[in-house]
Amino acid sequence: MRITVVNHKYHYEMEKLVRLFLPNEKIEVTKENSDGDGLYTEVSDEITVNFKAGDFEKRLTAPLCEDNEMQMGRMVYSIFGEYTKIYPKWGVLTGVRPSKLLMATEKRLGREKTKEYFLGDLLVSEEKYALARRVADCEQRIISLSKENSFSLYISIPFCPTRCSYCSFVSHSVQTEKAKALVPKYCDLLLKEIEETGKIAKALGLRLESVYIGGGTPTTISAQQMEDLLKAVTDNFDLSGCREFTVEAGRPDTVTEEKLKVLKNSPVTRISINPQTFSDEVLKNIGRCHSAEETVTAFNLARRIGFDCINMDLIAGLPGDTADGFKYSLDEAFSLDPENITVHTLALKRSSNLGVQDMRVTSENAKKVNEMLKYTYEKLNGKYAPYYMYRQSKSVGSLENTGWCKKDTECLYNIFMMEECHTIFAVGAGAVTKLKAQSGDYIERIFNFKYPFEYISGFEELIKRKKRITEFYNTYF
Question: Does the pTM exceed 0.85?
């Protein structure tokens, strides 16, 4: 689809807004006028928005105002809502962190004016504003724990038993011999990177707040490899002030008693066991090689071994799932009584298999996913509370991912990372270190090589890049 931009600089925001309604469309931005199909936007003596697609055509005009960009956004929202029959509940808000915007706006305008801004200017629904409000209130309490010398550590294990159809992460299936052969060398080098990173943190006198081992599926590696990894963390970082230590044991088919005992005999305080769905048919649709029953078995095994803080992930909108099917999955997760339940909205990323297959977002499946999330709030509210939330591009219905928790069981790392309140040291393939300046919002990133084979071949270069950490702290602290 073509977006024509005349006499204004809002093309980036208009493109992002259109993607809320047409996430799979290839969008071209041009300054050349045309009589063909597409979106025409102009700022002259008034604001003009015209959209034509086949037999559909709609033109709106509005007088110039204090915020022409916002006014144009509302006009585009109105036209595309009529065209697609989809009216995103986050209104014209395209950012991934609504609660962060809410907190920043509240500092300027106060609580009541912020609510007016979200509901009136941004067209956010009452329901979504209330969610952002509750999340922000929780996050402010957690953010206050972060100090000037705080940092968190993320460790990437980019391997899984199989690759899920919705996955866009850097993750290799160990079912392939080529990927499986990389694991030992990858793990050996990861220990060295952890050692080098620990030296830097110690020299700078930083305080470790949280550790998160993610992926991929970290429990894809062997019990011995996991034990070596955990020992490297405890040997090279001061964990005396560490508030939490999380390991994703996400795939039930990677969970064994031996691996759980390794985790339990270490500083690990919380794990994830992620069903995504309790439908065996939907599990097959997304390329998972385990059953719903195996999820229950893995969860009960973790409880028996002594884990008292477990998260479970579900995804709303998976291929072949129905509103009733999702409700059943949520009920099953609820009955297991985990400390956290995180509900994601399916995002159709271009690098995922579903994205490659060009699965479409329609008003019908947007309505279905909205029903799923509505049930989530009804079911979880009370026993659980929303503690962090974010949005992804190309998510069905332009909806959100929300973490729900029992009292005092928030995953601190999720909030520290999402709200960017302190530095995140990241190790492993695909990991991105985010260096946060002492004051202000300035963040600098150091990228590790994306794929395991690149990580292995480019390891020496990767270690050299870490010199920038010390330079950054000398400059901004």
Answer: yes
Helix, strand, or coil here: 340?
strand
Give the count of domains, the chain: 3
| CA-wise closest residue to 4 among 75, 46, 62, 52 | 52
Q: Name the residue range of residue 61's domain.
A: 2-84
User: Which candidate, 413, 429, 417, places its Cα nearest to that of 193?
Assistant: 429
Question: What integer pLDDT is reported at residue 296 of this predicted model?
Answer: 97
Q: What residue type is 476 in one-letter code?
A: Y
Regarding whether 260 and 400 lie in a shared domain, the answer is: yes
The span from the CA of 421 to the CA of 409, in Å, is: 19
For residue 54, what pLDDT is reported? Answer: 93
Which residues sit opposite 244 in a β-bridge? 210
Is 208 among the domain residues? Answer: yes
- Order across the sheet with 340-345: list the strands: 385-391, 400-405, 340-345, 310-316, 270-272, 244-248, 207-215, 150-157, 423-427, 432-436, 443-447
For residue 145, CA distances in Å to 103, 319, 439 come to 16, 40, 16
d(CA 424, CA 434): 5
Per-residue pLDDT reduced to its tens digit, 412-444: 999 999 999 999 999 999 999 999 999 888 999
Domain identity same for 79 and 104: no
Tell me the mean pLDDT in the region 270-275.
96
Are 431 and 355 within one domain? yes
Q: Report the alpha-carbon distance of residue 223 to residue 209 in Å, rounded.
A: 25
Token representation of residue 451 = 């794929």
User: What stretch of H or E contains 457?
Assistant: helix 452-457
Same domain assignment for residues 150 and 117: no
**304, 384: one domain:** yes
Asked if 125 and 149 sit in the same domain, the reply is no
Residues 79, 129, single domain; the answer is no
